[in-house]
Amino acid sequence: RFFGLLLTSLAAWYLGYFVAAHVPQNTVSIAVLQEIGKKPVLRAPAPKRQKCDHWSPCPPGNFAYRILSGGGKERRAKICFEDEQLLSERGGDVGSGINIAIVNCKYEKKICVTDSTDHSGEMMHFIRNAPEGTLLLMATHDDGSTRLTNEVKNLVEELGSKEIKNIKFRSSWVFIAAKGFKLPDNIQTEKINHSDQKKNRYNGWPAEIQIEGCIPRNL
Fold first, then answer.
1. How far, CA to CA in Å, does 29 sit from each of 16, 20, 33, 34, 180?
2. Residue 144, number of CB atoms within 10 A of its CB
3. Residue (of 98, 151, 105, 109) closest to 128 by Cα position
4. What are the φ and ψ backbone dihedral angles of 196, each rounded to 5 degrees?
């Protein structure tokens, strides 16, 4: 028994010596040995960015839109159409009041934009002169109600707004309308959030709100 134990020890020592002498040192490392037995970690690929920062892409043959109202003094309104920022703080074309962008959705990238206006007369002229077959995208920043006349409210109501006559001081309001054609019933076209001192996210200002969706090109 002693002789067998001795023979086994000598064989183990020789095998270890042989491996150390003939196997390159960088072939097996402690780190590699530690990785053995670990479960593989599956890493999901980073999600692909969609137009106008949608969570999911619009179906083929659709325009993507996203309208975000202002929030507080620092967060200004944004209007995006087909991944193009028509109005944004970076573009320097957003102001207090109701910001409006006009898009001719029959011809991609044929876009006309106006900055915000506090004057009801200018707003009425702008809307009335928008060509048939265009989209009008609107968003408030700061206050868009103080100088808004009933005549303008009636005009916006004719475009399909259900909230324009409910707009109050510093209400956050976003709206998309079509001139000369009808938008699908299943898309989000309007949202409003009134100032409430007990619920305001910012000091004296309600939280910003947004609407987004997809509009078929063949309307």
1. 16, 13, 6, 9, 73
2. 29
3. 151
4. -145, 115
The Cα 196–Cα 206 span in angstroms is 7
Is the pTM for the entire model greater than 0.70?
yes
- The total number of residues written for the chain in this structure: 219
- pLDDT tens string 135-192: 999 998 888 888 888 999 999 999 999 999 999 888 899 999 999 899 999 999 999 9
Quote the DSSP letter at residue 192: E
Amino acid letter, residue 127? I
Rounded to the nearest angstrom, the gap between the alpha carbon of residue 1 and the centroid of all alpha carbons in its chain is: 79
The model's pLDDT over 6-24, given as tens digits with 9 standing for 90+, comes to 556 555 555 554 444 554 5
